[in-house]
Predict the 3D structure of the following.
Amino acid sequence: MIRVRFAPSPTGYLHIGNARTAILNWLCARHYNGRFILRIEDTDVKRSSRESELSIISDLKWLGLNWDEGPDIGGKFGPYRQSERTEIYQKVAGKLKQMGRAYDCYCTDEELKRDREEDLKNKRPPKYRRRCLNLTEEEKKKKISEGRKPSVRFFVEPGLISFKDLVAGEVEFDTVNIGDFVILKSDGKPTYNFAVVVDDALMEISIVIRGNDHLSNTPKQIMLYNVLGYKLPEFAHIPMITGKDGARLSKRHGATSVMEYRKKGYLPEAMINYLSLLSWSSTSGEEILSIERLIEEFSFERISRSQATFDIKKFNWLNGYYIRNSSIERITELCKPYLTEKGFEVKDDDILEKMVNSVKDNLDYLSQISERIEVFFFDRAKTIGEMELSFLRESNSRMVLSEFCKKVANIKEFSTEEFGRVMKEIQNETGIKGKSLWMPVRLALTGRFEGPELVKILEIFGPNKTRDIIIDTYNKYLKN
RNA sequence: GUCCCCUUCGUCUAGUGGUUAGGACCCAGGAUUUUCGAUCCUGCAACAGGGGUUCGACUCCCCUAGGGGACGCCA
């Protein structure tokens, strides 16, 4: 049974990079019919919060990633929150101390920092100097009486650690480059490198899929596995997602949280599809892939080793594709909150659907809806711009519109068919056609060069209102 | 500074010794269109550099350069 896990730290919103890690874990679990476990790594008391945990869970659910065991639903390997497993870590750390593979360290942050800076200044790799390795009982007592609380460090033995990563391939590390690292902080909480090993082992995680930034942590963890006699899992370090400058995705690259994209109106299936395309490709070469296809095609072999740049343009394209191919009912429903926010209320759902449908094919993301269908709520001919106005004042435009007004003024029951017939007449009589013929009408009606198709506006406004607006605009700007 | 990873069009990628180096996004042009867009078609554009190995290297090896990551009582 394949068991994989996603283990976020609840210190903020779900990050795009973490979301991708979650997706890959989930795809792997579903592909192999294994179990997907959610574990909360909240050992940093200061930075972790329940709000973050809740928002991460909410985003994961929105993406459609369901887990088989987790803090909210339990499971037989629980608890699934590290803050609730403190005694476990302390017991294991105690065992390590008994084995002589861990020891108390009384160094203060300041002392450690000073050593570090000195190493860096002398261009030496910063490494713990084992100041507390051979402390006598006297010295320990003295430190304690000074009010120092010890942390616990793992004793690193020299040697070569190598393993075969499912993505990175064969990797080897020399432990001389690794200092004795802290496994238990002075507040009694475990550090990441310690907790992750204990939990992954106890929760019987069989494949550890995580970001490539953890690759150099792996030898530390393998030492722990070995000393503790735990069964080693397989490792799969997936390439990181970067911004345009090649550095890991961060705030300065723009939106980095799933929440932000969610709010902007990106579709979850588009996000999963796009993120799965980063550092991975289908054997078929296709890029539009359903969740089912992604599960079916998941394979470590097709995950590339190089980092990928997050490209918002391609994401927009893909999201637009999904919007275009979703039902008008769904899109309309999803658009409602954005319209409400702008005060665009439409009682009749049929009309609203028509409005949304008139621009549905042009959206990158849903929140664009309000500006796109603004034309139906404002008389935009009243706020016409300079460029638009000068186009309207060209002789062709004047001719088209004056003819239009003249022909239409005496028609009692104006209809859509009538509208078409009148335009045809104008075309025949003046010889003006195409853009020159229709743009004046569009401008007079909407005040803008672009917008929904004219027929669709006509359909929503109705022939009479359409006519009235055009005549008004003509009278206002072109009468003399 | 030390260690680890990476390097094909601007971006995401295909490619596992012999290909006109393919696709997608972007961009440009055309078609269509009652605007923009959407759609269809066409085009632009890449093997980081240098050594090997080989009859033959994008592909295998080494070096250099560049990028990224780790070296925290953050995860």
User: Anything to note?
Assistant: The first helix of chain A runs from residue 16 to 31. The CA atoms of residues 404 and 422 of chain A lie 7 Å apart. Chain A has four domains: 3-82+242-309, 85-238, 326-376, 380-478. The first strand of chain A starts at residue 3 and ends at 6.
